[in-house]
Amino acid sequence: MHKFYIIFIGLFLFCSTTLMAQEQASPSSDKRKYTSIKIGPSLTTLAPKEEPWFGGQIGVHAGITYLTMENDWLGIQMEAQYSLQGAKIDRGHLLLHYFNVPLLAKAFIAPRVSLQGGGYAGLLLSERYEFEAYSSRPNMKGSDYGLAYGITFGDEAKLTGSLRHQVGLAKVIDAKNQVFQLSLSYCISSK
To answer: pTM for the full model?
Structure first.
């Protein structure tokens, strides 16, 4: 499975450099492009099939985004982000550290409001279960993928705020990740 992620990350980097090369080769392109850094808190849990969700775990996420506007109302956004996820299980905490790569379409329903939707792939970097004074490393599945949807408010060329729900489709330990993210993004490059 790690080979899949190495190929996926390589493909992501190849596509990013190809897009940048095309941008430099045709400076007359009227597509607007925004590169931003983002950070924010997350509320995460694991959802077992046909059972109540585990307790919520407060986490954090941070990363970089690249938005290409196809026209005035549609954009494609690629992201690379670190995400601390997990859940409260029994009297302990399951902490999951992921590298996630979302690919989203953004539809602008108003000048400073957009709906976003798409998919993501995640690579589990590390995991730990903490129970009172006891700490262990559970045997977790090393990958995650799923769907993401949300809403963004603000000016893409300056500052935006987003609310997103990531719905995991892969079983990581007989349960699927559920992530609610609140993000603040600051544009560092606008072309």
So the answer is: 0.80
